[in-house]
Amino acid sequence: MLYLIKQEMFKNYHKKTTFVSMIIQVVIMLAMALLSLKYKNIFNGTALFKENYDATLWIVFVLIFLASNIFLNEYKYGTIKLLISKEFSRTKIYFSKVIFVFIQSIVLYLLAIIMTFIINFIFTRVTITAADMKTFFTNIICEFFSTWLIVSLCFLLASIFRSSGLSITISIILYFSASIAANLMFMVIASNKLLRFNPINMLNITNQAGDASYSHATLLPMYAYFIWIPIYVVIFTIIGNYIFAQRNK
What we know:
This protein is 80% helix and 0% strand. The protein has helices at residues 2-12, 16-38, 45-50, 55-69, 72-76, 79-85, 90-124, 130-160, 164-180, 182-191, 199-202, 205-210, 215-218, 222-246.
């Protein structure tokens, strides 16, 4: 397994796209900081700091793309046959890729954290209180959880579909569905409280962390998100592994 993880890291860190995506992330953060300086009445510097200068949205797109393509590339270039011929089980292959994407997600979030402080120190220079720091790190943690709910579903979809485009599209739709279909979903939840545990409702974790009144609509206490999201991540990952292990047998 360790060998496979090292191979994944070697392959991906020798791709220009891996570093280009990180550069784009930094550019987006810098752009938001500069906009807050130029249009202070529209972009609030403190709010942008607490939201890591909108780095999360880019991170989600990068991880969705990575998780959706990581299997397709093995089939595309025929390397899956080589890995299996070396007596690596499909389960080990699958989880090595999951672990690599998990490592990469930590790298991207750490980059977002570091750059947030650097950008504020050099450019925006807004005063950050202890409460702002708490909100910042709470948002990071909540966003990491919601991101991995989507990424685990991405792995599942990538195991089912031959097209990475389809799994990417479905994952992005689901990511935004929590806000787009919120009112409809909340009405359904109100009529059947068991539905509050559905995975789409779990994507409200960051919203509820920022506004406790969301609990009246989601019908979930904050601690429930930190229980149910890992459960869904494990379920989606196990199902994805099973489908991948049975594929083309």
